[in-house]
Structure formats: C-alpha cells, structure tokens
Fold VWFA domain-containing protein.
Amino acid sequence: GEAVFYVTLPESAFISEFLMEVKDKVYKAYVKEKEEAKAVYDQAVQAGQFAGHVALDARDSNQFSVSVNIEAHGKVTFNLTYEQLLSRNLGVYTNTININPSQIVEDMSVTVNIEEPTTIKDLEVPELQISNEVVVDKPNSLAKIEEKSPTHKIVVWAPTPEEQKSQNATGLSGQFIVKYDVDRESNPQQILVDEGYFVHFFAPEDLPQLKKHIVFVLDYSGSMGGRKLEQLKEAMDKILSDLSPKDHFSIVVFQSYVEAWSPTAMYSSGTEHLSSWDIEAKPEIIRNTTLDKRFVIEATPENIASARAYLANYSDLGATNIMGGLRTGLELVSIGSDLWINEIDPPQHLVVFLTDGEPNVEEYDTNAIINKTKPLNTKDCPIFSLAFGYGADFNFLRKLSLSNYGFARNIYEAADATDQLKNFYKTISSPLLSNVTFTYLPGQVDNSSRTKIDFPVFFNGSELVVAGKINNNEIKDKETIGELSGVTANGTHKYSMVIDYMPIDLKPKNRTFGHLEKTWAYLKIQQLLDKADSLDKIEERNQTKEEALNLALKYSFVTPLTSLVVVKPNETESAVDTTQVKPGSNDMSAYPAYGAPGLASGFASSSGSSSGPLYSVAAMPMPVGGSYAPQMQRRIFPDVHLHGGSFTQVRPPSTPYYPPALPAMA
C-alpha cells in the first residue's frame, strides 16, 4: 500500500528536516542546491505528487506532500520540521494551524506551548475558523489554557470524536488560531544574546502618530468590473472615512488613461493611448490641466465625502496603464514633499498601488516598469502593492515594492475581499517612526553579519527585528551595545540598546545550532532573497543569491534556491517540492503580516499503516483511529517531541519574504 504525508505550512516558513521511520530504520532527507537536485525534482513534478488530495486551500501557504510504499499492515512514521519567524501584526502574533483530517479522529490534539522572557498578554483562541468569509470572534470552548506563569502558557485543544461530529459529521476542516502579545510597557525593545548571536526586537507603542500623505493608485480597468470593483469601492469608502483630519490624500485612477482627482480640478494623462471610439464616447476626458498642489488633498470631512462620491460613481473601464498610474502617483508624492519642505514634522508619504492584471498600455514589460519607477521615486516613498485575484502578476508587484521600500500582498477573490483591503490598510494606517536606524558598536557587534538595520517607516502594532553576531563573548547583562534612532512626530528620538539575557534555554538538545543562530540565519536568508529580487545588475544578483544559498545549505533550509531530496526505502531517491497556494475564492485565510518577527520552529509528526485509509491534518496524514498533535512553542524555538507532532515559534522579520512556489528541499 501507499502511505501519504501531506502538510500545509505557512508561506514564510522554511522546512529544515524531514524523517521517515520504516521498520525501525530512519531515513533522513537532505537539502541540496536546486540545480543539483533538478533531475529528481523534475521526476517528482512529472509524477504530479498528490495534488488531487488537496481538500483545503490555506491562504499565504505552501503545500508539501510525499509518499512511500509499504507492505501490508506495515507502519511508517513521518516527521517534518519547519521554522518560521512570527510576524507581529496589528498588535498580536498569530499562529495558524490547518486542520483537515477528512474524517473523525479518535485521538486528536493540538498543543501550543508559549514561553516568553516577559509577560504574555492578550492571549486569544477563537473558535475553529471554517470559512474565509466568516471570521469567528467567539472563544474556542474546547481550548484549555494553562497558565504555568505570567511568561509561560499552554493551550491544549483536544476535541473528542463526539465533539468533532457535532461540528461536522465527516470530520473537522478549518484553522486553529492562537493570538497573543507580550508586555512592552516597561521597555519597547528586547535584545537577546546566546552563544555568540543576538536578536533585537523593537516595538514602541507610546509614540504619537505621524501625519501621513497617502496616495491611492487604483486599477479601474475592464477586468476589475463586477464584484471586484464593487468590493474596492466599498473598501475605499471605509478607508477614506478612517483618515485623520491631519492627514492628506491623493487619488489616482488608471485604465487606458490616467486620471487624478481633486475637489476643484481633474487631471488626465495618457489619452494618446485611447482609441477613437473611446474619445468619441467620452470626449470630456481630454483635459489639459497639469498636476499641482490641488491634488494633495486635506482629509477634511467635506473633501472625504467628495472623494467617496467620485470613486463610487466612477464607471469608465478600459485597459491597464500601470506605468502611467505609478508615474502620476509618484509625481504627487514629490508635489506633497515640496509643500512641506520647511516643516519640522512633514507627513510620511505612502503609495498604495492596487491592480488585478498585467500592463497592456504604454509600457508592457514589467521589468522595464520597475526600472523606470525607481528613478521616479525621488523621495524614497514606500510603495505597497496589492495583487487582487488570479490575474495579478504577484512576482512583478513584489519586486516593484521591494525596489521601493515597501512590500506586496495578495488580495484573494472572495466574499471577504473588502475586509482584506480594509485590514491591509489598518496595518499601514498609523506610522509612528520614520527613518529608523539601528547602530551597533563595532567592538560589541560584528557589523558585517547584521541583518537589515535601516527601515523607512515603523507602523503601530508591528515590530522591527535585527539579528547578528557579537564580537565580545564576555558581554554582560544590561550592557549597552549601540543606539537606535528614528524620527517621531516631535523630532528625532534615540534609544539605547541594552542587553537583556533571556531566562530560558535557547539551544535545543541534540541540535547543532542554537535558536538565536537559526533566527539570524532565517532572517539573513529572507533578506538576501529580497535583495536579490530588487537588484538590476546580474552579477550583483548572482552574488547575493550565492550568499543566500550557502547559508541555506549550512542550516538545511528549503528555500527557492534549495530543494529536499527524500530517500525512500527500497526505492531510488526522489525530490519533493512545495507548491504555493494561489489566490482563490475558497481559500482558508491566514492573512499575511508585515513588520518584524519572532522566531518559530515547527515539528510535525504522524504515523500510519497501510491497512487503513489515510488523511491529512494540518500537515499530516494518519490512519483512521490514529492520533494527531501539532504543537506551537515559544518564539525562540526549543525542541518539543509529541507523538502526533509539534509546532514551535518565535518572532519574525521586518520585511518578511513570501516566496512564490517554495521549492521543497528538492
């Protein structure tokens, strides 16, 4: 018979170990450079590994599956370890475990073990989320929370077969979610040191909000017609209403041509791309105005009401002039910057760029658009790109944003798309700091090892994380190792960086590398991959990828540059790859987080025999009557062993990398 191991894991996670145990013999997979593994990888892809077994799509996730032939009544145990930095988003860390056994399970449990150096607060376990369109706020009545101490809490969810049947006669299907935060009142930062490495978490909350000038560059092309456009209009209606009176905003709409709106003037460009039919049908679009300060609009109630009416009534849909939309948006950023050039606390500029398709007017080449956009962004304004639905080119939008100090997110075509848009806006609606820089003393820190230290903007509810190597192994608790600075609403603010030794063990047993070292490697690889995608010169890009590859091989991480080679009993080696879940209408949600992180490692295990049907539960298929127990743990991953499985966590990176089809350690 054939035993199948199937896992849905977070998109930002790196698989780091996979083991199979058959007849008391353990087979360990190994990580190789992707090209080296290409032959076996292609063989696995051609075999079409178990795509038909997918019963649940989880947003912002990757899927991993492997199979092995075993004799009748034989038994195989699978163990998968993956590691991830938990992002803090809107003031909480969120851990999501996909549950989908497709049957009633005799022994099912999820254990979440959270250990922190400071007090854990705002711990929430909502009901199992069974739909993207219905977000459940009710507490999970089956989840038990044990408080070991203010810094150590354990969540156990173990529904009996009867409790499973009461929710779904054919087995549970949904997402088990745990949310929490840590106390930051005493100190907005933590600097943890262990075995020559440090991780620095920074998340201030007591700062006044910066003013902002937000430029919305919105796709109103023909493909946006119907439900997507109505959802965008509904979301913008709410977003505009939430602007602060001290904010400014600009609206750019693009289709075959580009239009900018203000209460007193209209601007159009790109009309030379219109067909004669377009011009004949709507001659008033030919306008000869130029952009000026009238299009940088105060967020007064009257102006907001007018803007809402404009977007609600806009109905002309055409082609997709992305280059024109971006050019106009960045020109408005420059106009706004010149307006406030002499102010002590000028607004923070932000561009929100949304599209559902690919360019087909003026400039068709996405790489050319990226190369042309960077020199237009003279004010170094973050561009946040939103890929709405199947038709959007997410890889292009991701590279565009990485090249312009921002990040990209998917907006999934579903009934909750309006909420997805509003939730995204919440993450960037409250900038607290701009031009944040971490400066470490050369004698204390190996500055060549540091991860990213410059951040254009810090948003309330997020977190910045820097990791690196320390030079001085004798570094003491409460010792200062540098200074952090950023611009607040009241001017430049500086923080001293003081070491805070963590009162829990940081190195798991029988592991080569400690948790802080793995956190550093994880962050470094993510940021090198991001950097490579934002570089123009091929030589620099290849050097950056080579550095990321060497780290991935050293720490056995499956990345876009490496693959997992699985050794099977009585078979030749075969390569396994993870595949990305694409934006779709029925995906289970796990909203992406931006901002900085906490470290997490996951361990999933299951066992099954060929005599019974197999199923997958949040990563692991098991026989009827089997047991399942994934577990999450503290931010700086300790080792955990459960029969069913475990998932351990720590916090994450400031601009996390969300790989496309993540190549399982092929």
Notes: The radius of gyration is 25 Å. DSSP finds eleven helices and 39 strands in the chain.
